[in-house]
From TrEMBL:
Keywords: Cytoplasm, Hydrolase, Protease, Proteasome, Threonine protease. This is proteasome endopeptidase complex. The keyword Hydrolase applies. It catalyses: Cleavage of peptide bonds with very broad specificity. One of its GO terms (biological process) is proteolysis involved in protein catabolic process. SUPFAM superfamilies: N-terminal nucleophile aminohydrolases (Ntn hydrolases). One of its GO terms (molecular function) is threonine-type endopeptidase activity. It comes from Chlamydomonas leiostraca.
């Protein structure tokens, strides 16, 4: 199904260009479930329009969507998929699997790839396959991963996530991993900030955690020069 959007190739007069948006979203699987999280900042260029936005959208009781990119594009995808998921569960009289919901997102994103600018992560838990994380970047591809990140802040934390993630994470370690990754991105990316929201999804259900701005582990990262001076490095 195609959904409405701008017409590709149409020239937009100066001052009417689509706004640049940014965020940081992170999800990882652990033995027994998944943890997903997002920052709370919504920005339009240099203007911060919201510092406590909820970028985690429920698609089913056991599946959630992390949204990044153009906010209205990502929101309309989550609304449509949540609607179709509810219809499917009513017809089957059973909870849908995470894979089925992820493929609904993929189909919606791919069929409208010329109109949508949404980089999405689908994560959840089902009894058949346990905790699962799927990345669905702009363009509509779908890939199952052990961990996934996206948004403007993800540029700064690829190395941290690659070096720090382990397949044998406990729930607490997975929560700490996602929180640390978000905090590091928020300290470096001006389009990420505000609060941190976490959802832990396992056999017992979905559990939400909220960290206020003053509870985020890192408030700022040292500049390269300050870090060099602190370690005694001779400059110049």
């Amino acid at each position: 199904m195609n959904i409405g959007g701008h017409t590709p190739g149409v020239f937009k007069p100066k001052g009417q260009e689509a706004p640049h948006t940014g965020t940081t979203i992170v999800a990882c699987a652990y033995k027994g479930g998944v943890v997903l999280g997002a920052d709370g900042r919504v920005s339009v260029g240099n203007y911060i329009s919201n510092r406590a936005s909820n970028k985690i959208a429920p698609l089913a009781d056991n599946v959630f969507l992390l949204r990044s990119g153009s906010a209205p594009d990502a929101q309309i995808v989550s609304d449509y998929v949540r609607h179709y998921t509810a219809l499917l569960e009513a017809e089957c009289q059973a909870p849908v699997s995470v894979e089925v919901v992820a493929n609904l997102v993929r189909q919606m994103n791919y069929n409208n790839k010329d109109n949508l600018v949404g980089a999405l992560i689908i994560a959840g838990y089902d009894a058949a396959s346990g905790g699962q994380v799927y990345g669905c970047p702009i363009g509509g591809a779908l890939s199952r991963e052990q961990w996934a990140i996206d948004g403007s802040g993800s540029t700064f934390i690829w190395g941290f996530c690659d070096a720090s993630y382990r397949d044998d994470f406990t729930k607490e370690e997975a929560q700490a991993f996602v929180t640390e990754a978000l905090a590091l991105a928020m300290a470096s990316d001006c389009s990420s900030g505000g609060c941190i929201r976490l959802v832990t999804c396992d056999a017992s259900g979905a559990h939400h955690t909220y960290l206020q701005g003053d509870q985020v582990p890192h408030t700022d990262m040292p500049t390269p020069i300050a870090a060099a001076v602190a370690t005694g490095m001779v400059l110049g």
